[in-house]
Amino acid sequence: MPLSPSTPAASDTHDADAASFITFNARNVSSPIIISAPHGGTDYPKNLLGGVDLAAMRTLEDSGTTEIATAIAKSGRPAIIATCPRALIDLNRPKDALDPRLFPDAQAPENRRWQRHIQAGYGIIPRLSADRRPLYLEPPAPDTLKTRIDIVHTAYHQVLRQWITGLSKHHRNPLLIDIHSMPQARQDQTALPDFIFGDLHGITLPQYLKDQVDRFMQQTTFSWGWNHPFAGGYITQHYGTGNRAIATLQIEVNRGLFLTRSGADAKMLESVSDCVTALIDSLDDRLKSSTRTLL
Ligand SMILES: [Zn+2]
CA Rg, the chain, in Å? Predict the structure, then answer.
């Protein structure tokens, strides 16, 4: 299906936050599935680049995910894609994942799960690159960073919550899919599979959808695994647990599938995007055939 006529026109992009994310098909409720891609942004504002190590910042990008999520949006499903780089704000962290080295007044986060990420330098405002180099010669003032969190994080998650509320009126079981990309290997150089699906170890995705993912992947030539070492971040957890929970699934795509020495290979990226789109189509069919929609 083509993109909806208003996409990606300005009317379908949040005016106030046009610099931090784009949305596709925001008003389409025909599918129970919505897509999020929080880590692929590459818009580094020029006025920010004085005291930062841009090369270090770029190591935090989930490269390829903007292209994959945009390809999935061609099916007409709502998709929100961060354009603000992860190095500037990590939308897959809770607002209180504040690093005391950047925020001297920071308290420990409510959910202690995030403590080790913060200590490692990867709170909501990252302090280190993927290879643990400092991002800043001198970090911005805490108030500047807090304003960034208030504007960008609030706006991204407001869209997701609005979409979920809207979809819940039309579909019994909406599903949020959060798209990420991962390195080829773990830090100890053990290879990672082509895809890792995360549902917080069986908490956020019903078994019949998990079975559908496995059935679909068995028909492909790709390798895949569940939850190790990526079980799902804040988005998977926040929207997939608690009393307003919907089904959530995190997909980590191995960058080795499309990254070459000269960057992302368009053809390779296309074949990955085709696979993920077909997987999501099959989940959509499964959701529609197994649950009574409220349309
Ligand atoms: Zn990511």
Answer: 18
